[in-house]
Amino acid sequence: MKLLYTKRSPYARKVRIVTLEKKITMELLEEDLINKSDRLTTSNPLGKIPTLIFDHGETLCDSPVICAYLDNLKESPRLIPQDPKERLRVLHLEAIADGIMDASIAAYMEKNRHPGDFHAPFIQTQEDSIHRALKYFDKHIAELKNLSLASIAVACAMGYANFRLPHLIKKESYPDLIKWYQEFSQRPSLLETRPG
Q1: pLDDT for 15-48, tens place per residue?
Q2: Residues 6+ apart with CB under 8 A from 94
Q3: CATH number 1.10.150.130 given to 84-187
Q4: What residue spans define the domains of the chain?
Q5: 3-class SS at 5?
Q6: d(Cα 181, Cα 4) in Å, to the nearest integer?
């Protein structure tokens, strides 16, 4: 299998962490999202990463789909519970974490594209969404204690927000979440995939 990715993508990082935690071998192929390769646009009509390419040529795109597939390749560690209620809860938390990634990227890109005249209300809307989600996770920290796709997604979201919008990640605002994040980030899989 091959993974089309960029080193700074939090979505691709999520997939990479899953492969490392589950000890799945995968070839990493870095892509340029400005000058998209034929390989990427042929593999994924949206030209987005991460995209997984199977040895037989078929592809999967979108990090939740790829992670769900990878979780079924090996029994241990199980990152998406099989119990229906627990499964939905993990996927729910993953979706909120992915929303933090979406908002962080949107805010960063707006500031990057228009440094002198960015749309302040748009930035504020994205940052408000991030703050609400971080507060939510701070209140539900017990659900992140165990290794799961939810805890991986939250760590990736926080890592990206801290990388691009560090003013948002304040210990005094989310004390339990920041403490958890600092400890969870010492896992070898997170250290190996740290954005930078």
Answers
A1: 999 999 999 999 999 999 999 999 999 999 999 9
A2: 64, 67, 149, 150, 153
A3: no
A4: 2-71, 84-187
A5: strand
A6: 27
